[in-house]
User: Fold this.
Amino acid sequence: MQKESNRRILLIIDDDKTTRMLIKDILEDTSIPIMESACGEKAYELFKNYREKIGLILLDIRLPDCDGWSLIGSIRQLDQKIPVIAISAILPSELAAKYQLAGFTGYISKPFKVDELKEVIISYFSGLNNK
Assistant:
């Protein structure tokens, strides 16, 4: 039971402050704690330091200091099982195979539908409570 409560943080990695604020607003009525980062280097440090507590990562593909492709590779070297969802305006149909090969668990298109994003996030954290 201790392990379940440990993996309860959502890590949002997106250089767009408005996107990060929107996701936090969407989840305001949930009990999901959130960490956020606008750049890959800080996000990687957060993940290294808190990886046992992070239950889900939302990762933008385009970041100012690195790209989501290289960051997911670094994350996967530390943790093969952590769910990582790509969030990007790049159409998934154009890169579906690349997302899967890179180690992403899923994909959400920007601009995203509020209800869809909330449902996806809550489903991951509900799954953690059922383990």
